[in-house]
Specification:
By secondary structure, this protein is an alpha+beta fold. It is 40% helix and 17% strand. Strands 1, 2, 3, 4 and 5 form a 5-stranded antiparallel beta sheet that branches. Helix 2 runs antiparallel to helix 5, helix 3 crosses helix 4 and helix 3 packs antiparallel against helix 6. The longest helix is centred in the middle third of the chain and has 21 residues. The chain is globular. Bound molecules: flavin mononucleotide.
Length: 188
């Protein structure tokens, strides 16, 4: 297991197409989901949940993506349709992080959404800590009602991200990071 600080200092997203199989084992998926669930959660509302997409299920979800795509682009060609069908099959494992934020007497929805973001980030970090590469993306289909229906999302639920996980084929260079001096100020 990598040193925690080193992991946090060096983590980079790995593109879905650069994530190969085999998929994480059931035990690793359980570890990833356990760590993803261990996040601050004002009111203990558990305002998030996860959907695991593996194997053929990724292509079944891809059919809903194709349907949504064809509604927008009825003239799409076979190559484009095949690409959309394979959207969730680029990496061996995809875990959808679903925000369940809803109006509450005490806890602002904003805080519930933030907790879902924390769950997604913990999920990414857990995957990296286990030696996998990961990428937190949404893409257009995260906002398509037909795709959300196919995945079983209720009206108040939203996709926080589709986290793609696999064995990293690439070791990409880092991207520019904002200098701390530019993003942090001292009050007073
Ligand atoms: C909510 C959310 C949605 C994102 N959706 C996409 C996306 O659809 N496509 C994409 O290329 N990057 C997306 N990103 C950005 C990547 O997760 C990633 O941060 C970016 O590729 C930079 O890589 P890094 O993690 O190595 O800094 C999203 C990030 C967040 C937080």
């Amino acid at each position: 297991m990598p040193d925690a600080l080193e992991l946090l200092k060096t983590r980079r997203s790995i593109k879905p197409v650069e994530l190969d199989g085999p998929a994480p084992s059931a035990a690793d998926i359980e570890t990833i989901l356990t760590i993803a669930s261990r996040v601050p959660d004002h009111g203990k509302l558990v305002p998030w949940r996860f959907i695991v997409l593996e194997g053929e299920a990724r292509l079944a979800a891809g059919e809903a993506i194709v349907a949504g795509f064809l509604t927008k682009y009825p003239q799409a060609n076979a190559e484009q349709i095949a690409f959309e069908r394979g959207r969730l099959a680029r990496a061996p494992l995809v875990i959808a992080v679903v925000s369940r934020a809803a109006p509450h007497v005490k806890i602002p929805e904003w805080e519930q959404v933030l907790s879902a973001g924390a769950a997604a980030m913990n999920l990414v970090l857990a995957a990296h800590a286990l030696g996998y590469g990961a990428s937190w993306i949404t893409e257009w289909y995260a906002y398509d009602r037909g795709v959300l229906d196919a995945l079983g999302l209720c009206a108040n639920e939203r996709i926080a991200g589709f986290v793609h996980i696999g064995r990293s084929r690439a070791r990409p260079d880092d991207r520019p990071r904002p200098p701390v001096a530019e993003i942090a100020t001292r009050f007073g």
